[in-house]
Amino acid sequence: MGVSIKDSQRGNEIKHPFKKISFFNEAYFITAITFFCYCIKESASEVKLDSMKIKNALNESGIVPDVIDVFPKNALQIEYYNKGYNKQVAFGNYLSRWNTFEEPVNVSYPTEPNAYYALIMTDPDCPSREKPTHREWQHWVLVNIPGANWTQGFRLTEYIGILREYEFAVHRYVFLLYKQPGKLKFTERILDIRPVEEWRCKFSTRNFAKKYKFGDPVAVNFFMSDLGGS
């Protein structure tokens, strides 16, 4: 409701709009705050749901406990590019040997200021999930990654994609991100693109992380592949 005042020249009563506008602004402010709180609630709900999806996927796939012992809360975003198409790694989707022949074109993950990270791609199912006598086969290891700049990480193990000779059954290809305690000196053999079995097989993500005091993995993702992968 407006405030009435007298027009001194005309003697007419004029309704002053300021109070009405003030009331409108107050109502708008309350509505905006309510909506903001709702958005925060919904956002928190989505984060929690994502974490649960990650946990369920790792549990159902057996990656916990076959590769790691805990459930990372963050999704590691991995993207391949092949023949004009982008292929995302999406917690158990199927990708072919040709989809993943070249190393990923994009890797993204949450970071902390001035932190260094290690990225591992490993196959716990060679030669098969039923008889994994060569568990794990290391496909890619990047270390001393400065923050989100994964292309600047040191290539401890050069990328090798899916090997046809190990595709007798469905394999799980697991990407794990660890935060390092700092910039480190690694004593492992530096592996080039040759798929030398005695150098790459029987790798242990657990032991590697324990040796360098990484702690628990901070992000994860994985895909599945077999000869019929698409």
Automatic annotation (TrEMBL):
SUPFAM superfamilies: PEBP-like. Signal peptide: none annotated. Pfam families: PBP. PANTHER family: PHOSPHATIDYLETHANOLAMINE-BINDING PROTEIN, PHOSPHATIDYLETHANOLAMINE-BINDING PROTEIN 4. Belongs to the phosphatidylethanolamine-binding protein family. This is Phosphatidylethanolamine-binding protein. It comes from Bemisia tabaci (Sweetpotato whitefly). The lineage of its organism: Eukaryota, Metazoa, Ecdysozoa, Arthropoda, Hexapoda.
